[in-house]
Design goal:
Elements: H1 2-16, H2 22-40, H3 43-62, H4 64-68, H5 71-86, H6 88-93, H7 112-126, H8 140-153, E1 157-161, H9 167-175, E2 181-185, H10 189-193, E3 204-208, H11 220-226, E4 235-239, H12 245-255, E5 259-262, H13 276-279, H14 297-306, H15 315-318, H16 326-329, E6 331-334, E7 339-342, H17 345-358, E8 359-364, H18 371-374, H19 394-399, E9 417-421
Parallel strand pairs: 1-2, 1-4, 2-3, 4-5
Antiparallel strand pairs: 5-9, 6-7, 8-9
Helix pairs in contact: 1-2, 7-8, 8-9
The structure holds S-adenosylmethionine.
Amino acid sequence: MLERVLSSRRAASVSDDGDESKTRKHISLGTRVTNYLIRTGHLWPCLLIGLVIVVVTSFVYHTRDVVCISASSSDHLSRLRFFAFDGLETDFGSLGVPWCRSKHGKTVEWTTKDLIKGLEEFVPIYETRPIKNNMYGMGFDHSFGLWFITQWLKPELMIESGAFKGHSTWVLRQAMPDTPIISLTPRHPEKYLKKGPAYVDGNCTYFAGKDFVDFGNVDWRKVMKKHGIKDLSQVLVFFDDHQNELKRLKQALKAGFRHLVFEDNYDTSTGDHYSFRQMCDQFYIRGGGHSCFKDSDEGRIRSRRKKFWEKAVDIEELCGPGEAWWGVRGQMRDDFNHSNKAISYAEHFKNSRFVESVLDVYWELPPVAGPSLTHQTRYDPARASSPIVEDGRYGLFRSLGLSRLEASVFNGYTQMVYLQVSQE
Ligand SMILES: C[S@@+](CC[C@H](N)C(=O)[O-])C[C@H]1O[C@@H](n2cnc3c(N)ncnc32)[C@H](O)[C@@H]1O
């Protein structure tokens, strides 16, 4: 009762200051309602109902996107929240995201602005691709990367190893309409034509089918002479053949090629062949790289990220017998993992030193756009460079035409890399 009197006085003092605002009206109305409820004995039931309404409204408000959307979208949202709170760069910063260092710290000429301009040009080209569903072959990110690098370098000859149905041959052709291509692939792409879409190029020499020769066994001096190539720095070689990349690098160096693109530059402990990423992973850290303890900082970060990204690797997947983390659990894989060989840390270290001693440029293609835009759920963005179109820039994503593409084309990113090499 005393409280009621005090409340009325407070309300009165507000109304006495001459303010005609809604607050004053609201307070006096509230007071009147309270008085009424006390008089009729309904105050406590009403307070209880009010409390329930507040709790339910607040719950719905804070979980509205989870409540209103499908399960997979809610997964996506939690994934986005996860890395938004975490801060991508710092997450693996202390662990070291693999990156090969070039001999003199040189990098590529092109900038993010050039890449964005390139995307504007490439999206409509990509939409005309003959092989719409290129499962087991390149998706959008790497198709763009190959096209961009090729049209920037303008080689006089393009060589590809691993053509499958011919999508990458088509990409090379879009970049350089009149330049000859040499394609090495065990099964001729024309074979796929019988079953569905494939691409066979009119200005391409195929070492395929019964004419197939592995890149390492080609007499490149003879082939270059036949194509009138005198300067090997005018040749671009593209590898998508799932072979040990150290082996391919040595073969390319022996032949004298300088510009190389590798499609699948798998992260440590993933993939079916030894890659540059694997070779350059933390070899320069004294005592060597990763922690294989489940409860270490790395172990905890990895197991958290594993919940959100299909290709993220936890400690159990990272470390093989004897805590061997290099390559794939201490193995050097080759030829679609048909061959694999255990290597010691010392050997791995030697390989890494060799790679860096011949690198003039190492450039990993960034993902074309952040996961909140592409909705990709596979690769961990914390293990990749910042995307060309960063999360939150939906306007740019849409204006580049990227929102017109199916989400599945953004799922195949594996750190495609461009290397410029020269002898040790
Ligand atoms: C992932 S697919 C290539 C995809 C293709 N670049 C694309 O974008 O659609 C790998 C290809 O490598 C071929 N391959 C297997 N062993 C090879 C070798 N030693 N040299 C060249 N290609 C090889 C396979 O037959 C297959 O066509």
